[in-house]
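Hello Y.,

Per our agreement to keep a running log of every chain we model this quarter, I'm adding this entry. I've kept the format consistent with earlier entries: sequence first, then predicted structure.
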Amino acid sequence: QLHFVESGGGLAQPGGSLRLSCAASGFSLEHYSIGWFRQAPGKEREGVLCIGASGSTRDYVDSVKGRFTISRDIAKNAVYLQMNDLKPEDTGVYYCTGDTYGASCQDVLIGMHRTSWGQGTQVTVSS
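Predicted structure for the entry above:
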């Protein structure tokens, strides 16, 4: 069973940066696509970025292009979300999740509605 623990959130000023971590257990990242998702207050959860099993990345939303990057450390079985030039609209709870063995980033996005989410990590962007 896939298990994720998110960390690294906090309060940042507009234009600031944060780096989120997603510690995975119960499987090896080498064979799974992992996506970062977020849920802003009063809004539905949305996909942000994904890193495929091959290491290729995919943006789920245009609003983070050029500002957010996703990476992974296979040895540490962790996935990271580097967030730069933060904006107030980036505020929300951030989650990471995967899907089945060999699933694509598209599969992770489609499967988000059946995912059992963890606690996530709160990101607040405010001056």
